[in-house]
Write a structure and sequence with these properties.
Layout lengths: L5 E5 L3 H13 L3 E5 L2 H10 L4 E5 L8 H9 L11 E5 L4 H10 L3 E4 L4 H16 L8 E3 L2 E4 L4 E4 L2 E2 L4 H11 L5 E2 L1 H9 L9 H13 L9 E4 L3 E4 L4
Parallel strand pairs: 1-2, 1-3, 3-4, 4-5
Antiparallel strand pairs: 6-7, 7-8, 8-9, 10-12, 11-12
Helix pairs in contact: 2-3, 6-7, 6-8
Length: 236
């Protein structure tokens, strides 16, 4: 039985993308297609996805290898992240191995059958959704976070976060009570060097407040430390 999911399809060849999207939508999935690696990373940054179908050869400066590596950047040990199914026209074993090492969970060599594509996607979704809840859950208010399994719940209902939002949330909840500067967060969560003019951290903290604070104008959990950064206080 197919597990319904939000799938990001990263494929620049319309002759491949159109039938794949049609078949996956017929299976009940919600599918969005982008053609370039940079566009894929932006969509992962701004929306939550259950799975990425990623072509190896993409136009522009980012290949499928690059996108997969970036999606795996910042993950904690043992954290799987968004499942990635890589599509490739290359038959060499070395390319398949390189794709798996870059972070892909599975791969298909073109041309492939739609039945096999659907079966592999179903298997990846089942595997991702059957990961056990870890023992190191962090609870604050009505929110429960399992950093290892990548799960977030509010009042027992699962919440899907964009990858970078979850990475920031996990970094906070694993360091309760510590004041974290913007420079530290940019370096440790985003992998960026010092960027004094960046508002990325502030924007993402604001999103966490919108999701999890009872009153975002008076935050209890994600507090601003004037002149120093932010602090997560699970006890409010």
């Amino acid at each position: 039985m197919t597990t319904r999911a939000r799938i990001l399809l990263v494929e620049d060849q319309w002759a491949v993308a159109a039938p794949v999207q049609d078949r996956l939508e017929a299976e009940g999935h919600e599918v969005e297609r982008v053609e370039r690696g940079d566009a894929a990373l932006r969509r992962v940054e701004t929306a939550a996805w259950d799975l990425v179908v990623l072509d190896l050869m993409l136009p522009g400066r980012l290949s499928g290898f690059d996108v997969a590596r970036e999606l795996r950047t910042g993950l904690a040990p043992g954290e799987a992240g968004i499942p990635i199914l890589m599509l490739t026209a290359r038959h060499e074993v070395e390319d398949r191995v390189a794709g798996l090492r870059a972070g892909a969970d599975d791969y298909l060599v073109k041309p492939f059958s739609m039945a096999e594509l659907v079966a592999r996607i179903d298997a990846l979704l089942r595997r991702a959704r059957s990961r056990p809840t870890g023992e190191g859950d962090v609870v604050f208010g009505a929110v429960r976070v399992d950093p290892a399994a990548g799960r977030v719940e509010i009042d027992g209902r699962k919440v899907a976060l964009p990858a970078r939002e979850f990475q920031l949330l996990r970094y906070f909840v694993e360091r309760p009570g510590r004041t974290l500067s913007r420079d530290v967060l940019l370096r440790e969560v985003w992998g960026y060097p010092r960027t004094p003019l960046s508002r990325t951290v502030d924007t993402h903290v604001a999103r966490l407040r919108e999701r999890f604070e009872p009153d975002r104008a008076h935050p209890r959990y994600f507090r601003t430390v004037r002149g120093a950064g932010y602090r997560f206080t699970p006890d409010g």
